[in-house]
User: What shape does this take?
Amino acid sequence: MSHTAASSHGAHHDPLSRENVTLAGPHPMGFTLVGVGLVLAVVALIAGFIGAGGVTLKHALAAYHIGSTATLAICLGAMALVMVFHLTNAGWSATVRRQFENVMAFTPVAALLVLPTIAIEIATHGKLFLWLSPEWANDHLLHKKAGYFFWPQHHEPGHATFPVFFVIRAALYLFVWTYLSRRLWKLSVLQDATGDRFLSLKARFTSSWGILVFALSTAFAAFDWLMALDFRYFSTMWGVYYFAGAIYCGVSVVVLILASLRRAGKLEGVVTSEHFHDLGKLMFAFTVFWAYIAFSQYFLTWYANIPEETSYFLHRQSHGWQNLGIILMAGHFGAPFLILIFRGVKKSYNALTFMALWAILMHLCDIAWIIRPMAYLPTAGDAGPGVAGVWLDAVGIAACPLILTGFLLRKVGSGTLVATNDPYMPESLHHKNYV
Amino acid sequence: MSSFSPDELTARRLAGQAPGPSMPPAPGTGDGSLVDDPAVRAPLVLNNRSFHDITEIVCGYAENKPPRWWLPAFLFASSLAGFGGLMILYLVITGIGTWGLNNQVDWAWDITNFVFWIGIGHAGTLISAILCLFKQKWRTAVNRAAEAMTIFAVICAATFPGIHIGRQWMAWFLAPLPNANGIWPNFKSPLLWDVFAISTYGTVSFLFWYMGMIPDFATLRDRADRRLRQLGDSAARIAPFVPIRTDKARAVIYGLLAVGWRFSSRHWHRYEAAYLVLAGISTPLVLSVHSIVSMDFATSILPGWHTTIFPPYFVAGAIFGGFAMVLLLLIPCRVLYAHMKDLITLRHLENMAKILLVTGMMVGFAYSMEFFIAWFGGNAFEVDVFLNRAFGPYWWAYWTMISCNVISPQVFWIKAMRRSPLVIFIVSFFITIGMWFERFVIIVSSLHRAFLPGEWHMFHPTFVDIMIFVGSCGIFLTLFLLFLRFLPVFPIAEIKAVLPQASPHADDHKKGAH
Assistant: This one.
C-alpha cells in the first residue's frame, strides 16, 4: 500500500501535501533568540566575574550550568525516544518522529554548551565543582576518588592538577552523541529523499547498539556533571534519575513544537489528537517513572541513614531548599499525575501544551535542586547574594533553553515536518487509540 | 471496504467457514513470520487460519486426549512436588536447623528461591498489562500461558517466606491481625510490605488471568453442551463404571467458571473496560512488587545490599528471568502440541529474544553501576564485598551469574541465533540458572563475611535445602501441566482479533477500492 493511496482514504486532500507538511522556511526569530541566549549567558558570566550585586562566578556558573544540563537532557531524551521508536518498529510515531529528530539534532550543540562551565571551572580551580577546589584538596574521600577525575595524573594537594580523565570522558560523550544524532538524522532525511524503506532497518541497527552506548554515556555524564559536583555523594541510581527527567521534558518539548504547528494550520490530518494522546501517555508514564526513581533513591538513603549519603539530602532539606523539594514532589509528580491521568487532557492541544510548559519548568527546578545548593553552600560569614542571585538565576538559566528554542525555530522550518517516506506512515496516519 | 452487507466470501470468513485471504509465505521468511520488509507487518497467525480453526485448535488442547508424554511428565513433576512437600513437612516438625544456615548466613537458599520465583512471575504481568497498554498485538500468542505461569510462580514464591519463619503455626503473624497480646508486625519493615505487595500482586494477577479466560470458558462450556445434546446417551464417560459423562462435567465446571458469559456485545463492552482497568492497575504492580522485594535488602546498611539502583535493577532482572521461563516452557510446547507453531511463530520468539537481550543488558548495566559506585563511594567494606564476590570463595557463583546473564544473551545480536528456537531455548535455560545465581550471589556473598573475620562462615546447602527447591520446581511444573491439560492455553477471541480477516479492510487490495 503506498501512502498516497492510504492517505487519500476518507480525506478530501492529501495529508502529506507539500503545503501541509512544510513551513515557509526557517523562522526569522530563530537567530535573534540564539543571539539573546548567547548574550544572556555572557551577561551572567560577566556579572559573576565582576561580582555585581554580591554575586560571584560560582553563582553565575551554577545558573548557567542548570540551564545547559537541563537543555542537554531535553535533547538526550528526544534522542533516546528516536532510538526506541526505531527499535520497536513503532507505527504510531511515524508522523511525530521528525520533531523528535529536530530536537535530537541539537544534542552536539547542547553538549558543547556544557563545556564553557567545565573550562571555566578548570581555569579557576573549582568554583562549583568541589573536587577541583584547592580547599578540598586534603579531603580523604577525594584522595580515594581522585583517579576518576585526574587519572593518569596524581592529585596532590597544593598543586593545580589538570583533570585529564574527566576531560577525556567529556570529549567521549560529545563524540558519541554527535555521531549517534548525526547518523540517525542523516538516515531519516535520506529516506525522505530516496524513499528507500530499508533505511529504517539501518536506523534500527544504529539504535540497537546506540541505545547501549547512550545509556552508558548519559549515566556517566550525569555522574560527572551533576552528581560529582559534590564528589562526596554517590548513588547507583543517579544515571537513571537524570534519564527519567530527560525523557519527560524531551517529550514535552516535542508536544510544544507539534501544538504550535497544529495551531499554525500545519499537519492537518497528519498529527491528530490521537498522536497527542500517545505523547500525553508518554509524559504521564515518565512523570510516574521519575517519581519512582526519585522516591527510591531518596527513600533508600533515608531508611539506611548512613552519613556519607544523607549529607547530600540533609543539605537539600535545610536552608530553604526543602521548599524546592516540596515543589518538585507536588509539581514534578503530584499535579501532572492527577491531571494527565485524564484522557481529555492528553487529547487536547491546549491542555497538553500547558502541561508540557509546566513539565519543562519543573525539570529546570529539578536540575536547580541538584546544582543550586552547591553554589549556595552555607559557609560562615557568607550570606549569599540575595535578590541579585535571583536575577542572575533568571538570566543564567534562561540562556541555553533560549538558544535551543532559537535553533528549533530555524530547524523545524527548514525541512519537511514529517518523515514523509517512513514505511509506517500509513499506519501512523490512521492511528487510533480505541481499545 | 466495510459495508453493511458483506459479500459471500467475507460473510463465510466471518462465520469461520472459509479460510482467510491467502498470503503465501515469501521465501526467506522462515515460517512466513520473519518478514524483514519494514513496510510489511509480520502475520501473527500462520497458515491462513479461519476463526473456526482457532477455536478448534485452542479448545482441542483441553478437549482431546492429552499427548502421550503428558501423563509421565505429570507423574514425574507431581512426584517432585510431593517429595518437596515431604521435605517441608520434615522441616516443620524438625526445625530450620535442617537447612544449612549458620550464625552468619541466616538467609540463603530459601530467600534466594523466594526472590527467584517472584521474579519469574513478572513476565506474565508485563505481557498482559504493559504490552497491552503498548498495544503490542503479538502478546496474544503468549499472554495466557505467561499469566498462568505468574500465578504458579507466586504460589511457589509464597511458600518460602512462609516456611522460613520457623514456627509455621505462627504464620498468621505475617498479617497484621488484631490479637490478644497486642503484638503487631513491624510496619516499618520491608518484610511486612512484602506480605502486602505479594498478596496484592497474587490477587490482581489471578483476577487478570481469570477474567481473560471467562469468554474461553464459555466457549468450552458451549462446545461440551452441544456435544452432549448431539451424542445423547452415547457420550463418553469420565471413566468406565463412573456414571458421569465427560462433557457433562465439562459443561458444569466450565459453565460455573464462565459465570454466565453469553458473548453479548454488552458483555464484551464491559470486558474490554475491565481489561483496561486491570492493565492499568497491574502496570505499577510490575514495578512495585520487585521494588519492594529489593528493599528487603537495600534498606539495610549491609555492604552489597545497600544501593539505590536496586528497585529498577530487580524489576529488570525479574522481567529478564520471567521471559526466559516463558520461553523455556513455550518452546517445547510449540513442538509437542499440534498447530501451536501457527499461533506462536518464529517472530514471537524473536521478539522475546530481543527482550531478553535488552533486559539482560539492563541487568549488566546495574552490575557495572554497583561496581563503579562501590569504588566511587570510597567505602572500604563496600569495595571488599564486591571484590570478594568476584574473586572470593564464591567466585564461581558470581561468574556463573555474569556468564549466564550478561554474556549468554549477547548471541541474540546475531539474527540467525534469535530466530532459532533451539538457541533461544538453550540461552533461556542459562538465563534461568543465572538469575537464580544472581539472587544467591546477592544474598549469600554479602552475608557470609561480616565485619569481623571471626564471623566468616561459608554456606553449604543441605539435602533438605536442595530438595525443597527441586520440590518447588515440581509444584510449578505440575500446575503448568494441569493448565495445559484443562484450561484454554490461548485467548481465543484476542487471537481472532489479530487475524487479517478481522480487519474491516482485509479485502481492500482485491477490490481496488482506491
Q: What stands out?
A: Chain B touches chain A through 38 residues (CB under 8 Å). Residues 6-10+46-165+181-503 of chain B form one domain. DSSP finds 18 helices and no strands in chain B. Chain B has a mean pLDDT of 91.
